[in-house]
């Protein structure tokens, strides 16, 4: 391969040769003029000289860079052949005609060397033609992916650049911008490349050509100064300017516009309409002597439209296929080799042709991610999480994943019926989580920080790295929590929102010291903007911003770089959204087979016996048969507990109602939902599991025809377990109550009474028999039963019916409530809590224990298939 230096020297030599030839032409022409003889010999010589110049130009700017359009149309030169990023290239801009009938091509140095500026903007058709010509030559000559055009049209409504529209979706060119602000964005982007190269962060960037068909009309002196600075520093960073409309006399700001260095200036020729003058090429090595080219130049016309169309289509298709990133590009060959002592870093894709590396560390401990629906946010998160999981072992990284939307964001991390593997780093995964679950996860994170703080204090160290050194025996992974659609958690002013904000604030402030990181993603920050903009708000701690298409709300208000990003591109900004810190990166799609294969590799590598993540799936139904046994903390040594559901917490423990001998240890399930019957059955099954066969007696009173079958099945199950169980109907119920009052059982042999549809018994119980009403026995048992081991579990389908049954003085005689589809204020008045907050929700219940002053959201246990039945 020819070195850049050689190419440069060759270009210079050719240029000097052309200059020499031009001088020779001039000299010869002068002589011919003096002779006044237009001999056949002189004509021959002119033609020969022109041919030599033609050849010289063709050598300096070969093929697409320099051939006239008719020649290109005929020859079909190969694409992507003649230019390389970083190498100097000359380009043809027109024909010089020193005398009528004598012409030669004008080629000037451009990419790899300097810039081209025209004093006229592209509203002049000749200038528009030249822009199209130069752009076409560049696009055809550079290999796909090495050239990007930053297009500006502040005056001609995009018409001069419109034929190149096919390059926009391929990422080769932006949609031409016309406004001043957008123009400044592009300046920032170009400057950013210069800075990155100067800082050694991106040694081989794309060639970036800032093309202006016209500058925005209100362009100020500061903008011109920025262009001048780019002219000075750009070429070393592969940033070049192709400026039409530079230096129009009518603008006052031009008077003080700094000169453009390294620029070939093309000015309209006032003495010859339609002709231009070409100034000295940049750099002394090109022999610039301040003489300029002493010949009128007609600028190259635009290539035929068909040629541009075909070229753009081909280049766009090639750019897309060549530049295609795949998920496997993000995965290191060897898994789990990195240490997270100083932070977490992974590859997300490419910035230009360089790697896009992103970190969760002391500088950017927390991130905000935003993008409208369909922008690729889920894919981006998968790329990040799988990228990190591939680099860091579960001893280095633990994942807490929370998703508040309907969707499947994190299902790639958990075991399913089809694929029982999981990502071993995942500790808890919430899919379609409740806000309360989010709160529980945040609470757990704060607890983890406290544990780490205590451990640091004990070890006499002040940061995580030191703690890890002092305790090599304990795994202290960095904890990364990802909250997708976090606005759901923070929206509103209820208690959950307030507590969540407080916890988030604490984690955001202190997390960095304890290796606890947050990535919060959202499609919209609408509704939580007040939080977002609050000066010292929680979001101030989120220095790293990742904006996908439509996610510009998390960037600075002046920064609209994310407005029109295609899917697969992001703006990375590690300065809280300030425009100067934008890095535009591409990330790959996370295809299912690659995710599957990486997950399986990691699963095979996990520590034997390491548990799967605790999974909370908002829409899932749970049955008591899947419940883990009640913990000792709840049960104590002898207390039995009735399990009624799952807690909405990080460990997903069972929700339990403990029994003891205090008056009122009974449970009322409230609401018309048939889940009421399931909750009773779950309580019975769980209690049976805590008794030896024959120890306890279960009376099942079925007062609702619709659940007879379910009660029947429960009876059989209890009997099969060796317990004493019997099913009763309404007429037997008062007698049962009377018997239990008259002959209380022994505490050692508890009796459980389950009443399905207890409200159906009210009028029967109110009737007196032999001078005694069943309702009085019922009320007496509620108070005195627990001391004798008698506990009631009743399903009332309305709160008022229960209140009625309890009577005026008996409100306190049922300590436990499971509220299903009943109103919060009714339950509140039952338990004497006017501000009780309960909104009935599908697949949720509120468990209240008045003796323990406890309320918790639970997922009530149901018989398998309960909800599919409901929807059938
Ligand atoms: N880098 C990429 N390259 C190609 N296609 C992508 C890329 N990222 C995402 N996609 C595709 O775009 C579509 C939307 O992606 P994704 O589901 O991640 O969007 P989202 O922003 O999470 O949307 P939603 O919020 O509606 O779920 C998917 O079909 C996905 O395959």
Automatic annotation (TrEMBL):
Residues 353-557 form the FtsK domain. It comes from the Bacteria. Residues 250-276 are annotated as: Disordered. CDD domains: TrwB_TraG_TraD_VirD4 (cd01127). Keywords: ATP-binding, Nucleotide-binding. The keyword Nucleotide-binding applies. InterPro entries: FtsK/SpoIIIE/SftA (IPR050206), FtsK_dom (IPR002543), P-loop_NTPase (IPR027417). Signal peptide: none annotated. ATP binds at residues 371-378. PANTHER family: DNA TRANSLOCASE FTSK (PTHR22683:SF41), SPORULATION PROTEIN RELATED (PTHR22683). This is FtsK domain-containing protein. It comes from Kineosporia succinea.
């Amino acid at each position: 391969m020819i070195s850049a230096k050689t190419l440069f020297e060759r270009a210079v030599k050719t240029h000097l040769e052309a200059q020499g030839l031009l001088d020779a032409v001039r000299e010869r022409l002068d002589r011919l003029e003096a002779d006044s003889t237009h001999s056949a010999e002189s004509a021959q010589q002119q033609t020969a000289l022109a041919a030599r110049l033609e050849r010289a130009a063709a050598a300096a700017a070969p093929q697409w860079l320099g051939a006239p359009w008719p020649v290109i149309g005929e020859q079909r030169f190969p694409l992507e052949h003649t230019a390389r990023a970083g190498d100097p290239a000359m380009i043809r801009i027109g024909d010089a005609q020193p005398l009528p009938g004598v012409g030669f091509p004008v080629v000037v140095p451009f990419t790899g060397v300097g810039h081209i500026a025209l004093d006229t903007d592209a509203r002049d058709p000749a200038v528009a033609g030249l822009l199209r010509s130069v752009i076409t030559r560049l696009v055809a000559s550079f290999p796909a992916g090495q050239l990007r055009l930053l297009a500006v049209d502040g005056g001609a409504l995009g018409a001069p650049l419109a034929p190149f529209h096919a390059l926009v979706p391929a990422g080769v060119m932006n949609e031409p911008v016309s406004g001043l602000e957008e123009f400044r964005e592009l300046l920032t982007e170009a400057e950013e490349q210069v800075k990155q190269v100067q800082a050694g962060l991106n040694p081989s960037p794309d060639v970036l050509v800032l093309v202006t068909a016209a500058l925005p009309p209100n362009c100020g002196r500061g903008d011109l100064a920025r262009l001048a600075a780019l002219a000075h520093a750009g070429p070393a960073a592969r940033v070049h300017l192709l400026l039409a409309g530079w230096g129009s006399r009518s603008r006052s700001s031009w008077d003080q516009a700094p000169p453009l260095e390294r620029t070939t200036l093309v000015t309209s020729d006032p003495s010859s309409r339609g002709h231009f003058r070409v100034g000295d090429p940049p750099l002394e090595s090109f022999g610039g002597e301040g003489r300029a080219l002493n010949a009128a130049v007609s600028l190259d016309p635009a290539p035929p439209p068909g040629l541009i169309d075909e070229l753009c289509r081909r280049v766009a298709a090639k750019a897309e296929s060549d530049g295609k990133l795949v998920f496997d590009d993000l995965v290191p060959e060897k898994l789990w080799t990195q240490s997270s002592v100083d932070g977490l870093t992974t590859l997300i894709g490419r910035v230009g042709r360089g790697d896009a590396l992103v970190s969760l560390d002391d500088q950017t401990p927390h991130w905000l991610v935003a993008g409208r629906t369909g922008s690729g946010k889920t894919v981006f998160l998968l790329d990040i999480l799988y990228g990190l999981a591939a680099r860091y072992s579960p001893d280095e990284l633990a994942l807490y994943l929370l998703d508040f939307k309907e969707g499947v964001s994190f299902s790639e991390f958990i075991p399913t019926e089809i694929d029982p593997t999981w990502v071993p780093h995942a500790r808890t995964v919430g899919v379609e989580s409740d806000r309360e679950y989010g709160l529980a996860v945040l609470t757990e994170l704060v607890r983890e920080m406290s544990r780490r703080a205590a451990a640091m204090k004990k070890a006499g160290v002040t940061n995580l790295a030191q703690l890890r050194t002092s305790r090599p025996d304990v795994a202290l992974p960095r904890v990364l929590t990802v909250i997708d659609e976090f606005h759901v958690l923070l929206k509103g002013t209820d208690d959950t929102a307030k507590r969540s904000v407080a916890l988030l604030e604490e984690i955001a402030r202190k997390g960095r010291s304890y290796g606890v990181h947050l990535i919060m993603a959202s499609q919209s920050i609408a509704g939580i903007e007040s939080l977002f903009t609050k000066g010292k708000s929680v979001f101030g701690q989120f220095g790293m911003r990742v904006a996908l298409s439509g996610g510009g709300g998390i960037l600075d208000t002046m920064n609209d770089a994310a407005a029109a990003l295609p899917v697969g591109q992001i703006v990375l900004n590690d300065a809280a959204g300030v425009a100067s810190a934008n890095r535009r990166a591409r990330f790959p799609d996370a295809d299912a087979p690659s995710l599957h294969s990486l997950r399986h590799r990691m699963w095979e590598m996990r520590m034997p016996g390491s548990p799967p993540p605790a999974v909370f799936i908002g829409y899932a139904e749970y049955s008591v048969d899947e419940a883990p046994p009640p913990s000792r903390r709840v049960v104590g040594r002898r207390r039995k507990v009735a399990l009624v559901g799952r807690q909405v917490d990080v460990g997903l423990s069972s929700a339990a109602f403990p029994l003891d001998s205090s008056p009122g240890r009974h449970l009322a399930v409230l609401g018309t939902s048939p889940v009421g019957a399931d909750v009773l059955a779950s309580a019975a099954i769980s209690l049976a599991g805590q008794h030896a066969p024959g120890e306890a007696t279960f009376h099942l009173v079925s007062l609702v025809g619709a659940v007879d079958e379910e009660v029947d099945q429960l009876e059989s199950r209890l009997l099969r377990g060796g317990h004493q169980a019997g099913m009763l109907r309404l007429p037997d119920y008062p007698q049962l109550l009377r018997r239990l009052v008259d002959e209380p059982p022994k505490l050692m042999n508890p009796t459980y009474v389950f009443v399905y549809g207890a409200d159906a018994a009210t009028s029967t119980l109110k009737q007196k028999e032999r001078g005694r009403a069943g309702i009085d026995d019922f009320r007496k048992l509620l108070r005195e039963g627990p001391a004798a081991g008698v506990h009631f579990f009743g399903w009332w389908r309305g709160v008022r019916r229960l209140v009625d049954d309890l009577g005026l003085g008996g409100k306190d005689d049922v300590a436990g409530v499971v509220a299903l589809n009943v109103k919060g204020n009714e339950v509140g008045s039952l338990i004497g809590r006017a501000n009780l907050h309960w909104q009935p929700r599908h697949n949720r219940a509120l468990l209240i224990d008045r003796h323990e002053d406890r309320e918790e959201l639970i997922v009530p246990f149901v018989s398998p298939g309960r909800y599919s039945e409901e929807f059938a």
